[in-house]
Amino acid sequence: MIQVRFFASLREEMGREGAELEAVEASTIGEVWEKVAAGKERPANLLMAKNMDYSGPDTPVCDGDEVAFFPPVTGG
Amino acid sequence: MKIKIMESPFNPWDEMQRYEKEVLDPLYAGQYGAATVFSGTMRDFNEGDGVTGMLLEHYPGMTDQYLGKISQEAAEQWDLLDTLIVHRVGLMMPNDPIVLVAAWSAHRGVAFEAARYLIEELKSRAPFWKKEQLLEGERWVANNTPA
């Protein structure tokens, strides 16, 4: 399985904390987005992480990975 | 090199004092000629609106990982004795401390540069998000203010 997580304003827009995908359903982070976003276009400023490291849409994913999508960070 | 995520209010000056006493002094008493601090506090205004409260969300695990990375990068770049980062999460009120970064070194120059690096990198890379509560409604902060 691939665990998918959404944070902050994106979580509210998606209406859920995350999702689970079978590993065969997506081979990159970009494909994960297409599977879980229900047709929603990927925002230009969307940030992505694989296993808690910043990544891009072409980053490969495999069984056991955690993929997160979130808006620009605003801490500090 | 210490990272702390706080779910309740903290006092940055108490954190500094405690860290110096418990960690710095046993190792480096007499060696740190400079300690630089950035302390960030919640404002009661933003973009022309009054702000009555703020919810600070983060990505547990990734937050610690990135604050650790940033601290490590600073340690590799400058001749530091130690660094400390404390960041608040959860619901907070105006005037509550949000963040503390501190750097200790033998001399002030590198301590200033390292503290500046820590806070700017934290603001651009650590996965925290602010949601402001206004007199009417609430809103996510879209971008941090420029340095």
Task: Tell me the quaternary state.
Answer: heterodimer
What form of chain B results from the Cα inertia axes?
A: elongated
What is the CATH fold-level name of chain B?
A: Aldehyde Oxidoreductase, domain 3
Q: Approximately what portion of the residues of chain A adopt beta-strand conformation?
A: 25-35%
Number of helical elements of chain A: 2
DSSP summary, beta strand count of chain B = 9
Considering DSSP H and I runs of 4 or more, what fraction of the residues of chain B is helical?
25-40%
Could you give the distance between the termini of chain A? 34 Å
The helix-and-strand class of chain B reads alpha+beta
Question: H/E order of the elements of chain B?
Answer: EHEEEHEEEHEE
Task: Please identify the top-level CATH class of chain A.
Answer: Alpha Beta
Q: Rg of chain A from C-alpha positions? A: 11 Å
Largest sheet of chain A: 5 strands, mixed
For this structure, the CATH topology of chain A is: Ubiquitin-like (UB roll)
Structure, described:
The complex is a heterodimer of chains A (76) and B (147). Chain A has a single domain, classed as Ubiquitin-like (UB roll) (Roll). Chain A has 76 residues and is of the alpha+beta class. In chain A, strand 3 (47-50) and strand 4 form a beta hairpin. The model of chain A has no long low-confidence stretch (mean pLDDT 97). Chain A has two helices and five strands, in the order βαβαβββ. Chain B is α+β, with helices and mostly antiparallel strands and 147 residues long. Chain B has a single domain, classed as Aldehyde Oxidoreductase, domain 3. Chain B is 35% helix and 38% strand. In chain B, strand 3 (45-46) and strand 4 (49-58) form a beta hairpin. In chain B, helix 2 runs antiparallel to helix 3 (108-125). Chains A and B meet through loops of A and strand 4, helix 3 and strand 8 of B.
